[in-house]
Amino acid sequence: MAAEEGARRLLGTSSIWLCCLLLLGRQEHGAAAARSGSPPQSPGASVRTFTPFYFLVEPVDTLSIRSSSVILNCSAYSEPSPKIEWKKDGTFLNLVSDDRRQLLPDGSLFISNVVHSKHNKPDEGYYQCVATVESLGTIVSRTAKLTVAGLPRFVSQPEPSSVYAGNSAVLNCEVNADLVPFVRWEQNRQPLLLDDRVIKLPSGTLVISNVTERDGGLYRCIVESGGPPKYSDEVELKVLPDPEVTANLVFLKQPSSLVRVIGQSAVLPCVAVGLPTPTIRWMKNEEALDTESSERLILLAGGSLEISDVTEDDAGTYFCIADNGNETIEAQAELAVQAQPEFLKQPANIYAHESMDIVFECEVTGKPTPTVKWVKNGDVVIPSDYFKIVKEHNLQVLGLVKSDEGFYQCIAENDVGNAQAGAQLIILEHDVAIPTLPPTSLTSATTDHLAPATTGPLPSAPRDVVASLVSTRFIKLTWRTPASDPQGDNLTYSVFYTKEGVARERIENTSRPGEMQVTIQNLMPATVYIFRVTAHNKHGSGESSPPLRVETQPEVQLPGPAPNIRAYASSPTSITVTWETPLSGNGEIQNYKLYYMEKGTDKEQDVDVGSHFYIINGLKKYTEYSFRVVAYNKHGPGVSTQDIAVRTLSDVPSAAPQNLSLEVRNSKSMMIHWQPPPPATQNGQITGYKIRYRKASRKSDVTETLVTGTQLSQLIEGLDRGTEYNFRVAALTINGTGPATDWLSAETFESDLDETRVPEVPSSLHVRPLVTSIVVSWTPPENQNIVVRGYAIGYGIGSPHAQTIKVDYKQRYYTIENLDPSSHYVITLKAFNNVGEGIPLYESAVTRPHTDTSEVDLFVINAPYTPVPDPTPMMPPVGVQASILSHDTIRITWADNSLPKHQKITDSRYYTVRWKTNIPANTKYKNANATTLSYLVTGLKPNTLYEFSVMVTKGRRSSTWSMTAHGTTFELVPTSPPKDVTVVSKEGKPRTIIVNWQPPSEANGKITGYIIYYSTDVNAEIHDWVIEPVVGNRLTHQIQELTLDTPYYFKIQARNSKGMGPMSEAVQFRTPKADSSDKMPNDQASGSAGKGSRLPDLGSDYKPPMSGSNSPHGSPTSPLDSNMLLVIIVSVGVITIVVVVVIAVFCTRRTTSHQKKKRAACKSVNGSHKYKGNSKDVKPPDLWIHHERLELKPIDKSPDPNPIMTDTPIPRNSQDITPVDNSMDSNIHQRRNSYRGHESEDSMSTLAGRRGMRPKMMMPFDSQPPQQSVRNTPSTDTMPASSSQTCCADHQDPEGATSSSYLASSQEEDSGQSLPTAHVRPSHPLKSFAVPAVPPPGPPVYDPALPSTPLLSQQALNHHLHSVKTASIGTLGRSRPPMPVVVPSAPEVQETTRMLEDSESSYEPDELTKEMAHLEGLMKDLNAITTA
Fold first, then answer.
1. Dist CA 1278 CA 399 (whole Å)
2. Is the CB of residue 776 less than 8 Å from the CB of residue 767?
3. For 1395, which DSSP code?
4. Global pTM value
5. Exposure pattern of 636-652 as b/e (b: 16+ CB <10 Å)?
6. CB–CB of 1411/1161 below 8 Å?
7. b/e for 312-335, b at 16 or more Cβ within 10 A?
8. Residue 389 in 3-state DSSP?
9. Using CA atoms, how far apart are residues 909 and 933, in angstroms rounded to an integer?
10. Distance of alpha carbon 380 from alpha carbon 756, whole angstroms
């Protein structure tokens, strides 16, 4: 009764509001008619108005329980009041004789004592309210579903559990979905109160977070659905104290995919436990969710996520991430959002005349996309020739008749719900004009511009109506003017036509007055039509012409499309296609043509078929194909069917997995790795892999292990110690197991060895040189407790880093082939494991000359377990090719000439692929093993050139590395922003700034431009920032017309051919305050002596005056200070000249015997080297046995903090080099160059800096940090070509370090100062290789001070060296020409003593003459400056 009272109140209130709206609507309608100029209609021809007829309340989906009462609300408005009826499942209910269902006064349906059982469900179903007004029409409401909750049934029940205090507990109680609202929980037989800590999930599951002791007890869930309550099992929840130890992190409840309707709430459950207690956070599509500040996102107890008022933007993938500090786990679920049908455009009321064509428009939206049906007066409209669905949802009615009047409703429905909207159609008499301008719902063919009828003569019937053109689908009619109006210029005509035997007549109007022909289209072939024509003048429509009977031509007898085409896969290589005979066959079908095509290709194939099915064989496995059918008769091909697609069935893989490799972990386990079979051979989705392994000694006992999913590695444990095992892997699909790989062998370790550190040095290394090969043998490290996985052998002429070969850990010898005769090779041996390479062991050998015919005897090592070397090594692979697949993947393929022609691998050989990039230069090789003739290298850097080579290993034999193949990976968008972004003002233009930057460190391709963003608001949206594009790879850009005294923020973004990279961090810059020409851009005082001028070189001891003494124009000194400075300079110059003259006179008195002794010492040194170089029994000195780098001591200490930048000006050409005798002379020479304005751009700005700082060159070995430095000074080229060669240092370092001399480069770029290139002259073969590299910036190296005497340059090395080859040293920089450094060998002890006695340098007389000429020029310059 309460429901009835509520419905009455609602109806009464709605009626009052509706009446007001109707009155207002009628007033507005009358006003609109007056505004439109519609003339008043005569009483006899009044226009009927549209009658308001709609639902006030419609039924909604309802959930009920047995034996309860239900009300389905429905109320409709109309005048007169409508009659309400109800339909259930499309059938009208007889409510008169029904004692349980009754109609309430407002139209609602009341159902008492709902009946529901397993076999009798009379009340459950779909209900619809139908409202009818006599002589007006019928409308139907939306469809509502009544669901009756079934008998309680537990899907899952709670289970006893234990939980640590502070963690979360989950008790399951899942029931059928319609009973979830009736579930509640009890603790110890008492109702459990829910709060923020204790919640019930939508499934009925109970979640308790932050469990305490009082949460322990007995729990059960109860379902109360009208009948007796149903109880679940009662289980105990135990709360355990915190053990203060860690426990693994696991999910108690993971989120599952959900589908929700817009406006509903969604709960994604997620509960995890572990010690320490985990925290839960959520992400959506890789973006973190802020549950604290959001009003719609709520984090429930235990970590579950609730989303209230779901919108379409909430759809996506959600990630639940649990983290307790020790480990992190995550789970994900999809949230799909659906939307009920909504009307974007509802049907509109329409006035029309008979025979017109009209369109009711209806646009709907929803997710999933709704389907639309039309209802007229409560009955579904069935499409026909006159009722058509156009533009997906619109209803077109052709040739209106009086019975078409009524209410039309558009009903949209999808899986979520349904909705309806309606409109009324009124058909007026022909003499009544349509009240308003023709609406858009009238088709153009029947637009009727009727004017109000006036008194006057009407036209007679048009004459001589004939069909001048008759075709299959159209007829053209022509006629003459009526007899009453022979001119007929102002007459319009209407053509009425209908099918013979059909009462519904359609109309077609002429397009302009006076036109006397019309073409009727869209007719049916071989059909009789009846035509008549009427004329219209300003008084109205005249008489009709006599009916004209015309039959359209029969259409060409071509078949229509074959209906019901279906295709299904009958096997992995065949598909069966079926179809039926075309409905419009138009003659006997002779045959069919079946077309099919593989998806992704454009080559279509066809086959002739004489029946209604065909089986296509020989297709590719698990491949999608498209099919269509065309029917043929005697006239030719008919209409093709639509394409249908189907995929062949999957099958077992037809190829084995690729790149199988084994890694021995310890004495009881191995890790096996592999790659999937090639995509074309997988023949379906790979569901897993089958691993089979056995002991090599027992081939019948095979163990199998299954790996599910896409896992590509497996750890095999429980193996025996020191045992060889064979492994093979096969791929699985749902159809079975594919072919397996070849057996691959590996042996477990004898004991569990240590692999936390690199192996120690091998205990011995022996070499045996032959003519073109060297036999290398060794013994393992003495410490047998460290894992050794193999040995790396490096060798080369003078350097052991030219080639590197890796061999198995069992191998004890190797023959290095393809060497040059009579060449000195240095060999290094290192043991390695997964941690890295150990300490190397060095040895050297000289290959025998070609003329050596001595017997090549086999070399047997004094070790009982070392076998005789195999004289026939494997041939290296050939035809190595690199195929670029993506920005990080390259496929390497090769051929093996030692295999049969079919290249089938039948033995246990395997291939090792190595690759590296040359940037940076010291990049190490990466290696991988493969058992096939290809390997997929992944994880590469984008837009990077890599080199690849392959070697083959079979048993104890290995080949050398193959020829290298190169490949450059594809580009990728930059993954890092431009770096070192700086902003400065432009001098003299405060409104202009200059932005500088450096390219991104990860450009991943050629940079094609940059985009500069700047704004005054750093928090503004990026689309509000001003954009400045920079084309090309420029690294600076000017931005003009900025506002003064304003902070700006700048960001830069790089782009390449693949797209835009990330933006740099915002850089702030404030423009200057005033636009004045006497201020610097950053409001700093100018320190220059004049525009574009440079300060004179004043030395490091010079201190500028205080700022208060600056001149107004910014000059740094007063005139008095300048004069004092010149006096000081002149005094110092005079003293310097006197000292130089004294030293020069002293040097000329030296006897020539000193020079002879000096040359003899040099010659003896060279001779001793030659003798040592030819010795066969060379014993490596301690320098090689104990160190991996050559240590060179500096001659003097240098405070230079940057060893790369030198303070000595390096001349541009050989003529710029002047001889120097000591540091004072060098200073004078440099000062003269400074005054003449020829000072190098990179030279220091003070004289003290020139005196105190020396350039250093670091010479590291094996990429180790440099520890020693070699001093260099400018050398002279003014000595005569015939002057004696000086090769020995004036002062010898006690440790044998050598001095070096620079030779000036004749070619030097203007971009910077050149760096030296070391050319090392060998004393011992093991000392003859070194690769100088640019050392990293670091603190200066301070060595004990030694007397500093520059070396004279060597003009040529005229003496002949022995024929043993030595290593050449590469340049230090790309753009810097080399400056050779000659490193003499360490002399013998007695020779060193003699050289120390004669270590003083001397000048020839002509050299002194030239030096005095230079000094005279310097004095002239000083006098000129003084007088000025």
1. 115
2. yes
3. H
4. 0.39
5. eebeebeeeebbbbbbb
6. no
7. eebbeebbbbbbbeeeebebebeb
8. strand
9. 11
10. 81
CA distances from 783 to 757, 813, 863, 1349, 1418 (A): 12, 19, 17, 50, 70
Distance CA 1262, CA 397 (A): 91
Cα Rg for the chain, rounded, in angstroms? 50
Spatial distance between the Cα atoms of 957 and 967, rounded to a whole number of angstroms = 29
**Which residues pair with residue 183 across a beta bridge?**
223
Q: What is the pLDDT of residues 327-379, one digit of tens each?
A: 888 898 999 999 989 999 999 999 888 888 889 999 999 988 899 989 998 88
Residue 698's CB is within 10 A of a number of other CB atoms, namely: 9
E strands along 500-651, which residues?
506-509, 517-520, 528-537, 540-544, 548-551, 566-571, 574-578, 591-598, 605-609, 613-616, 624-633, 636-637, 644-647
Are 1088 and 1110 in contact, with CB atoms under 8 Å apart?
no
Distances (CA, A) of 1311 to 1214, 1368, 1377: 18, 26, 11
CA distance 985 to 963: 55
Q: What is the pLDDT of residues 1128-1145, one digit of tens each?
A: 888 888 899 988 888 887
Q: Which amino acid is at 277?
A: T
Residue located via tokens 């997620």 = 270
Give whole-number Cα distances, 1129 to 1240, 1243, 1245, 1396, in Å.
21, 20, 16, 37
String of DSSP letters for 1163-1223: HHHHHHHHHHHH-SSPPPPHHHHS-SS-----SS----S-SSS-SSPPPSSGGG-----SH
Q: Each residue of 8-43: pLDDT tens digit?
A: 443 344 444 333 333 333 333 333 333 333 333 433
User: How many Cβ atoms are within 10 Å of 1303's Cβ, its own excluded?
Assistant: 21
For 69, 151, 568, 616, the CA distances from 619, given in Å and listed in that order, are: 62, 52, 13, 7
CA-to-CA dists, residue 905 to 911, 930, 952, angstroms: 11, 12, 12
- Decide if 373 contacts 363 (C-beta within 8 A): no
Q: What share of the chain is helix, strand, coil (3-state, %, to 5)?
A: 15, 35, 50
The bridge status of strand 328-345 relative to strand 258-261 is: parallel
Tell me 908's DSSP state.
S
Residue 1146 has phi, psi (to 5 degrees) of: -65, -35
CA neighbor of 220 nearest in space, from 257, 188, 198: 188
Rounded Cα–Cα distance for residues 998 and 1010 (Å) = 11
Q: Please report, as a single letter, which amino acid is at residue 229.
A: P
120 contact partners, CB below 8 Å, separation of at least 6? none
State both tokens at 731: 């791929």
Structure tokens at 24: 């207002």
Asked if residue 532 has pLDDT above 60, the reply is yes
Q: Which of 1157, 1213, 1142, 1158 minimizes the C-alpha distance to 1408?
A: 1142
Nearest-angstrom CA–CA distance, 134 and 406: 11
Count CB-CB contacts under 10 A for residue 267.
19
What is the rounded CA–CA span in Å between residue 273 and residue 211?
A: 11
Question: Strand, helix or coil at 1?
Answer: coil
Query: Which residue's structure tokens are 């409001």?
Result: 1083
Q: Which of 246-250, 676-680, 1094-1098 has the lowest mean pLDDT?
A: 1094-1098
In this structure, the strands spanning 406-413 and 418-428 are antiparallel
Residue 1012 has pLDDT above 50, yes or no: yes
Total residues belonging to the chain = 1428
Residue 1302 is classified by DSSP as: B
- The tens digit of pLDDT for each residue in 370-402 reads 999 899 988 888 887 788 888 888 998 888 888
Provide the token pair at 1076. Answer: 């004045």
The neighbouring-strand residues paired with 250 are 273
